[in-house]
Amino acid sequence: MLHGKRILLIISGGIAAYKSLDLIRRLRERGTAVRCVLTDSATQFVTPLSVSALSEDRVYGDLFSLTDEAEIGHIQLSRDADLLVVAPATTNIMAKMAQGIGDDLATTVLLATDKDVLVAPSMNVRMWEHAATQTNIATLKSRGIWFAGPTEGAMACGEFGEGRMVEPLEVLAEIESYFTTSAPLAGRRAIVTSGPTLEAIDPVRYIANRSSGKQGHAIAAALAHMGAETILVTGPTNETAPAGVDVRHIESAREMYDVCVGALPADIAVCAAAVADWRPARQGDRKIKKEKGAAPPSIEMVENPDILRTLSSAGNQRPALVVGFAAETGDLIANATAKLMRKECDWIVANDVSADTGTFGGDTNTVHLITANGSEDWPVMRKNEVADRLAERIAGRFNQSTEAVG
Question: Is the separation of the CB atoms in 118 and 178 below 8 Å?
Answer without folding.
Answer: yes
